[in-house]
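As the next step, I selected for study a record pairing a protein sequence with its backbone structure tokens, which the following lines show:
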Amino acid sequence: MIVWNAGIAEILMNRPRAKNSLGKVLVDELYETLDVLHFDDSVRVVIIRSNVEGVFCAGADLKERAAMSNTETDLFVQKLRSLMDGIAALPMPTIAAIEGYALGGGLELALACDLRVAASSAKMGLIETTRGLFPGAGGTQRLPRCVGISLAKELIFTGRQIDGQEALSIGLVNHMVPQNEEGDAAYQRALTLAKEIVPRAPIAVRMGKVAINKGTEVDIASGMAIERMCYAQNIPTKDRQEGMAAFIEKRQPKFIGK
């Protein structure tokens, strides 16, 4: 389900009986949601959160997985990997708000987001090795980029779960906040962060995201070339002209995304 909020789109996961585990139906719904958001220029920020108390996403639906053949399992994991890539490829910034458990594929989903906010009540871990598996939806690639190779190996090899405070200390999340009585502290902090981003020049923000994402995949010289190409696309925008005019006129800029 998508909730629209003044330039902010909120993706709400709501599969309470299965703790938002990534079964076929939920995955298909998330695919449909990405299709809606990808080309919507009115959306400045996307927040992904849970509508189920105490859980962000419990990971893969192992009950469904147990009924799959080896071939079906391989195809479904490919679909999960493609879903995570689709989240990462959204042109606007994405924020995961983690109140409770984000395990296995649930943490991989959060890792596909640009930013992560956790409450003190959060529990995170790539626990696949405790189930005879290993992270197959991007976790082996995205976790090292957050916490470093050695620590990523430790977390994946042990399947250890960590809380919000430890996640902050190792760089897995951007912010950690004490949980409140309503159980939505991470969402409230994510919303505040999103509201900081919304007024900024949307094309510049999107080009910045492309430059970072693509530039970190290559050597620094190639990364600088990517940055130059992204900057060139921003030069002719009305928003760049508005930003300079607002600075000279000593007023707040009004960006229109053009």
Remarks:
- The two ends are 28 Å apart (CA to CA).
- The beta strands are 2-5, 8-13, 45-50, 55-57, 94-98, 101-103, 115-119, 123-125, 162-163, 175-177.
